[in-house]
Amino acid sequence: MGEVVGEEVLEAETHIWNHIFSFINFMALKCVVELDIPDAIARHGHRPMPFSHHVSALKLHPHNSQYLHRSRRILDHYGFFTKYKNGKEEEAYSLTNSSRLLFNHNHSSLSPLLLSLLDSFLLQPWQLLSAWFYSHDRIPFKMAHGKQFWEHTASKPQDGDTFNAAMANDVRLVTSVLLGQYKNMFVGVKSLVDVGGGIGILARVIAEAFLQTQCVVLDLLHVLTNLEESHNLIYPEGEMFQSIPLPMYFY
Question: CATH homologous superfamily for 187-250?
Fold first, then answer.
């Protein structure tokens, strides 16, 4: 095996450092969402929002607010914000298509998905990944929490509600494009089952748009509790690994 020498050492070190510190990117994104920055820029209006206005609008602590520009610089680089600066004027920021999908009070926002997937209960199994390869547990999640994922969310409704709400928002976003541009693919479909469909956002939208289609959402009881059915939308309790109804289409 050849020895790494010269500039190859620095290239290899840079490659490793990029991976070591890549967690900063998604943690900076989480921070910006939790601080409500995309919403603050949207409330500012059509003009770019000066950096000093961020501090006042978000009521940040004066001592720590001086470091906000560091996370902003990372996200500017990755296309979440557009930075403007004319001459000696203060830096100002506007939204991009990506940051417009991160509003905190929008039913099609991806911010709940971001916050859910970066929650400690979902990050903890990744910390045990190497130990899991030596264990008898089938999945790292069970090793971390002593239960399968769906058992955990059933016993801790807050985690389950957060995850289901995040998935529902993602479905709303995809469905808006699906039925806007590919609506014809559902014409003539008599029935479909959304397997593991959560709270049934996708099936409900399809059922409302295509009254001739019988829609079934199959999921666990604690997920489907209190969901309202209609003449062409039902929520039977079911375990997808045991049996699934046989319609024309599955999702």
Answer: Vaccinia Virus protein VP39 (3.40.50.150)
